Amino acid sequence: MEQLDGNEGTSAFHMPEWMIQFADQKQEFNKRPTKIGRRSLSRSISQSSTDSYSSAASYTDSSDDETSPRDKQQKNSKGSSDFCVKNIKQAEFGRREIEIAEQEMPALMALRKRAQGEKPLAGAKIVGCTHITAQTAVLMETLGALGAQCRWAACNIYSTLNEVAAALAESGFPVFAWKGESEDDFWWCIDRCVNVEGWQPNMILDDGGDLTHWIYKKYPNMFKKIKGIVEESVTGVHRLYQLSKAGKLCVPAMNVNDSVTKQKFDNLYCCRESILDGLKRTTDMMFGGKQVVVCGYGEVGKGCCAALKAMGSIVYVTEIDPICALQACMDGFRLVKLNEVIRQVDIVITCTGNKNVVTREHLDRMKNSCIVCNMGHSNTEIDVASLRTPELTWERVRSQVDHVIWPDGKRIVLLAEGRLLNLSCSTVPTFVLSITATTQALALIELYNAPEGRYKQDVYLLPKKMDEYVASLHLPTFDAHLTELTDEQAKYLGLNKNGPFKPNYYRY
Amino acid sequence: MEQLDGNEGTSAFHMPEWMIQFADQKQEFNKRPTKIGRRSLSRSISQSSTDSYSSAASYTDSSDDETSPRDKQQKNSKGSSDFCVKNIKQAEFGRREIEIAEQEMPALMALRKRAQGEKPLAGAKIVGCTHITAQTAVLMETLGALGAQCRWAACNIYSTLNEVAAALAESGFPVFAWKGESEDDFWWCIDRCVNVEGWQPNMILDDGGDLTHWIYKKYPNMFKKIKGIVEESVTGVHRLYQLSKAGKLCVPAMNVNDSVTKQKFDNLYCCRESILDGLKRTTDMMFGGKQVVVCGYGEVGKGCCAALKAMGSIVYVTEIDPICALQACMDGFRLVKLNEVIRQVDIVITCTGNKNVVTREHLDRMKNSCIVCNMGHSNTEIDVASLRTPELTWERVRSQVDHVIWPDGKRIVLLAEGRLLNLSCSTVPTFVLSITATTQALALIELYNAPEGRYKQDVYLLPKKMDEYVASLHLPTFDAHLTELTDEQAKYLGLNKNGPFKPNYYRY
Amino acid sequence: MEQLDGNEGTSAFHMPEWMIQFADQKQEFNKRPTKIGRRSLSRSISQSSTDSYSSAASYTDSSDDETSPRDKQQKNSKGSSDFCVKNIKQAEFGRREIEIAEQEMPALMALRKRAQGEKPLAGAKIVGCTHITAQTAVLMETLGALGAQCRWAACNIYSTLNEVAAALAESGFPVFAWKGESEDDFWWCIDRCVNVEGWQPNMILDDGGDLTHWIYKKYPNMFKKIKGIVEESVTGVHRLYQLSKAGKLCVPAMNVNDSVTKQKFDNLYCCRESILDGLKRTTDMMFGGKQVVVCGYGEVGKGCCAALKAMGSIVYVTEIDPICALQACMDGFRLVKLNEVIRQVDIVITCTGNKNVVTREHLDRMKNSCIVCNMGHSNTEIDVASLRTPELTWERVRSQVDHVIWPDGKRIVLLAEGRLLNLSCSTVPTFVLSITATTQALALIELYNAPEGRYKQDVYLLPKKMDEYVASLHLPTFDAHLTELTDEQAKYLGLNKNGPFKPNYYRY
Amino acid sequence: MEQLDGNEGTSAFHMPEWMIQFADQKQEFNKRPTKIGRRSLSRSISQSSTDSYSSAASYTDSSDDETSPRDKQQKNSKGSSDFCVKNIKQAEFGRREIEIAEQEMPALMALRKRAQGEKPLAGAKIVGCTHITAQTAVLMETLGALGAQCRWAACNIYSTLNEVAAALAESGFPVFAWKGESEDDFWWCIDRCVNVEGWQPNMILDDGGDLTHWIYKKYPNMFKKIKGIVEESVTGVHRLYQLSKAGKLCVPAMNVNDSVTKQKFDNLYCCRESILDGLKRTTDMMFGGKQVVVCGYGEVGKGCCAALKAMGSIVYVTEIDPICALQACMDGFRLVKLNEVIRQVDIVITCTGNKNVVTREHLDRMKNSCIVCNMGHSNTEIDVASLRTPELTWERVRSQVDHVIWPDGKRIVLLAEGRLLNLSCSTVPTFVLSITATTQALALIELYNAPEGRYKQDVYLLPKKMDEYVASLHLPTFDAHLTELTDEQAKYLGLNKNGPFKPNYYRY
Known about the structure:
Oligomer: homotetramer
Structural class of chain A: alpha/beta
Organism (chains A, B, C, D): Sapajus apella
Largest interface: C-D, 85 and 85 residues
Pathway (chains A, B, C, D): Amino-acid biosynthesis; L-homocysteine biosynthesis; L-homocysteine from S-adenosyl-L-homocysteine: step 1/1
Pfam families (chains A, B, C, D): AdoHcyase, AdoHcyase_NAD
Family (chains A, B, C, D): Belongs to the adenosylhomocysteinase family.
């Protein structure tokens, strides 16, 4: 942590002085594998490229236009055809969605205001690959306002909101994405973003690592001009650490997935609400008095447990980590092995990031009408494959709800086929996406403006000071008034009045 | 974090293999000052050498024996006089207290059992300087059972339980401590522990750094044989980092204050209960409907806020750190500046570690009967000195409760003269002390058994694996059943089945 | 259940005197206080005949068959045509819905089992007028199993589930109902239930009083054979008290709306969950940190406040009743006048049963994006009419969600046009409907079997013992084990071991 | 307050018929259900004449003056000797206590202010028999300010605060009470209050019924002039109902024990806090993670469960009443029989009002160190007598804490020997006592001013409007702002704008 004393050269974007010093708080990850175990502990909202998106419904697609966007000739009102979307005519509807999202993304709007004088991303050529939603659009247009040029593809073949893509294309963003891409389409879109005559990206914003992977594979020379990669997904971060470990990471990369603020919102605060929403929308069940077992007491598990307890459920917890286990005890939950309660519970929720936490054996022992769902990582936690056997009957009773029926008539209620409940059967609030998008924007600014040598060919966490800045940009939403240290107090505490306020190991 | 791959040589104490590898998770702190800012963020239960101890009442001292223990000739029943306590005859009463404490310190008792075969501290000569209470006695006797010889002094001139000291002396421990030592007595007792013919310590267990300081000053050569220092207080840890920074730390030291488990219990879990207890015992107030402002939303503040909210108080929070501020918002507390609510609140609680958080100006504006107290660090948070002016009248209405009366008749109710409420007006549960004592015992074992070179002349955090071990030893208290990873799962997660289960940056 | 048959003397249920005189507390509109006041304090789930029903979606109606059911010739598989439903062919789908509902209505199923020997409703001819849903079907088939003959119409022109109606018709119930009846259809259906050759009802089960009204108006002589009316809605109960007061009630009637168990579930427990569900489904908002004002702290308000507080919202309460106001204080909510917080809150929720609680003036002062909704009674609480003025623009952004836009661009988000959020934008859990249906069934049994003279031509509350019985039938759902009094204890307490366990004024 | 004078016809408070007949529901031991049952459901704070009073410590009695106050000659500074207290010289200290209490009894102070013009108790001669504490003193002096003359004795031989009694005597109140009266003293004091030349009481304020009993027995003629009795204890109320039933009640009496506001505070709000306080002060235990069984889910049980759940305990509930049982389920507690959990719990708490809820058999099966205590009624709930057998050893480890030791070494920790924990080991907050005292004052005003015929020789509940008034007088403490109905709203609801706002059966 000696870096705090560092002297840092210059930085564009006239953020308060303190921002200049961010790089010094770097946390190195390059020397060892951040094993997948690390991956398992968090659960990025954007990670799941095969999950369905309940919120990603397309609002205006009524008639099914079966022509592939790749085969269409479209131009926006300014005559540009440097984009590929489903239907440029949906732009107006998409614009309204973007405007609504802007109202709930105050931090990005604040960044835009601050950028009216200076342009911290002037000269930046950003290629991005993320979900394409109204919130992403607000991010992209913010990056534009900060001076950047952007080209964009989707990181998921289903998640694109066609209207939003149309609105972006209409306002001049080269966007290549539509809902329901084929695998081939997917890579074609990415390629159209980077393989452009007369334009070469110098920054990458990735979500899942596919874009980064593509450039590595197809255009490795491009990295010579690239100043850095910002990656927000668990999977993508994992890939970057692997590259780094293998000595193949040739530019600095920033892991924004593990930022404090983003983590708390993606996991604890978001799941505290979405567990209730996901269960209610799919089953209309009542929570009061229900017995629930939550597997895993990380941030996601903590959120689920708190919400269900508050609604009058009786909650049991399973854990493998004794420290988290002790936390569960002190928070008032009985710590059990799954086998101990599997016969009696009404709901089983997995939040472990592990695989086969709920096995066929467990499923066999559950009582009739038991609800089983996954809030954790990917779709491995419940051994859904084990249920696809001839003696069991599957009955789809609603969208995202299957009854799996045993020969004796017992049914279990499986939600989202074991995929992530909160993505499949609930929505991610704009405010959470605002945290993520702001984190991404600040990481891009930092990497782009960092003086030579601050970042090496390695994976970094977002400097704590910027993490704090993300948080502070969101406080006005709550009409929250931060206290400032007096000079005397700052001296007493040995802190800079502008932060960072905590040591790196602080646990919040 | 490359250390995880390390190959570690041998270690005594047949703990599961994994324990052997602890040292690799070392966390270096030596290269930069851990400024007092860091100190301010935690609040060790043992830190305060001048705080009064409500729980440290002496049970049997009825008649006041005014003779100084130093002037008395006392022998225990085995004829030894290598101790100095108030009254060896109180041993029986103290023994009962120790026995009661044993029942609530299951982890140490478990360690004793495991040590029946091997003696991980065989040959260890430990000199200790801590509060001398029934819980410390259980620790000392555990260290003895693990093979160590111990000599002990008190780290606070008021906190010794004379009966317990007597019981320890009676059972053969050279203890030098009594309640109400003079400054001179204090150092005399410490000296008697280390300045012994034919016995030289090879391990130090310190609480506050006074013992370490004394040896540095008086017997620097003694460090040649010392294998390590274990320090649990904020202040002592701060001193060690200063020594380290100055290049003067000549043995490895372990900072057990910042262990995850200990921190959670000392701060969050303990204060969640003691804020209620401290307020109730001193004021008999009702919590329901009261307006409270809590300054600081770290672990202590979080505990205070949660408890008071649950009791029906309306809680406001002040913060300087935007991340903690955002947490307060998401937990349902209005984030304000102190000035905004100072006129309306019924209670003001400081939990910042900062100084002059509550100023005379604030105190002037409080309403009549407002209660003011400190749960934070030391006694600096409330500017009590500013109240010692001629125009204000102080009235002591109960032990630890003063009314400070303004000329217009307004009274504020000041608790413990601004010192720590939870130490002055409440008690620390044995279970919390058990966590601390177990952490200390494992740190001693680790440092004593570490192979040459694992630890350098630096300050280390307790390896995460041992932190997890402390937690696991306390799970049986709650009849809590930990789940074990299958081989397949461990492989999937890239984890050792025995832990550690989390990366070092994990925030719990 | 043997008590139900009441061979225990004249007053089988030990109802205190006052119960018989309950009618004296009848509710008039004009002459004395606390009448509609009473109505305003509860909020029956079934009351609202004009509210839309989110859960009442028809599952199988894809093609729009425009022929009126009255013009169709339909027969069920046994050849009967004594019914009128949308499409008898949908019976199979409806049957599955009924079977699913059966699994969550354990109390009715338990009644069926107990009725295998005795038939407490043997000879009963029940005419019913309620919402026709899967849960109602379970009730009807239970009444059938208990020995009754039933004929049924819908109490709401929109709420009929056509498939369920078909399933009931298929299994032999004369049902006259479909989704989307005209006013004329509505009365025609009711008439078809009562105006039958060779069949005359002797019991009425009503929800809203329309059936009762029709018989009064058209077939007053029918009351000679009718043993009683069971009414569950606020409105229907109100009408009965009016009849009673006017001396026109010619049979005993039972007010099951005010039963303890039903009230708690309809209001407190149901709304604690549906407030979150209703807000989430319509707005996808995040609750954490939001400022909310809840108008009214009755059961509904208490449920809303508890849920939102638990989700991290900051909740303010308004009240007119000082006792409820003091409860709000002790539960940790600031008690304010609406004007004090109207500018700062993010959400306004009405739960008063009153009218014009939120006025145009309040609406004018709300901040941009403020959400306004009603959980109370009817659609009078928010003065929605005042928003239908030329200077304001209404924009329907989703089903049940309108943006009302001020000239300066400010938008407020109005949910369900001020109608009941929990009925319009959420669902009523089957478990809550099970409580209601069980209460109705027991009330029918009681009235039908009551010995001559127990009930006069008046309105009664369900005997407490039966209220307790409703509760006890639902305990097995939670694997809850009730303790039984010993003889000695019952004697000590002066209680019958089988209840009732509380005096009638007990407040739960 | 003008409503209190009620020129609103015969039944000013629109009490329903049944209220007048309330006496019929009187509480007997043998003859009909729901009598003592009633008693068991509430738990008056003042009921227990043999419970010790932790808060009733005498502040200034250091030297033990063994002379009986009856043998002393004392005069106050005005020369009066019409009192009998321990030591008139302690008056100054007592006065300060009274002044402190005044600050927390805003409702009585408000009544004093309102009484500056009118004197609603002018001419009233009140004889009182209650605990004599600072709070009672505030009540007495308020009654004085309202125009009454008072004479006062203690209702408990231990609970008198001598300094307060001295202060009252000094300011001219004829008080006859001291801490540590003998049985003979007790009745002598009461007699001195009523047996006075030239002064005859016309109102009685009683707590326990002893004063009423004494007058019945010794001075029955006195009732000719007495306008009414106000009684606040469960026991006293029970006695009044017995008198009434026997036709021997010769004046109106008001049962203030069952007032809504008083009940909520005495039971729910008070116990929610005192359960934690009582356990903490006696055992210093930590609540987090502890398993607790609470017997009984009435108001007291609800308070205990809510508090412990909030502190992280795992709480089980036992119940005999299915409605309360269902409430426990919906609030998230597992409903069990005591036997199911007795082996595993760390704490057993009784709140039933029943007897032998915890039997010797249960005690035999508890685990080592289990804590057993009673929050319910009287000292019958735990079969303490069964523990007084030769094979068990009792060890007093602290005041109010006994270890009962089984032959095999198992200990259970019995608090307060099974008497009420919250009275024995905690304190009753002044605010709760303020509610009670205000209720008493208003009841006295009502009875004293009621027009002829409003009250007959029967037992009444406090009119709801006055209950609401008690609440409203306490709202300013919380800076709580009540909303007023508009004329239009009042008309819509059929309510008087000044209340009462609820029907009598409303459950709050």
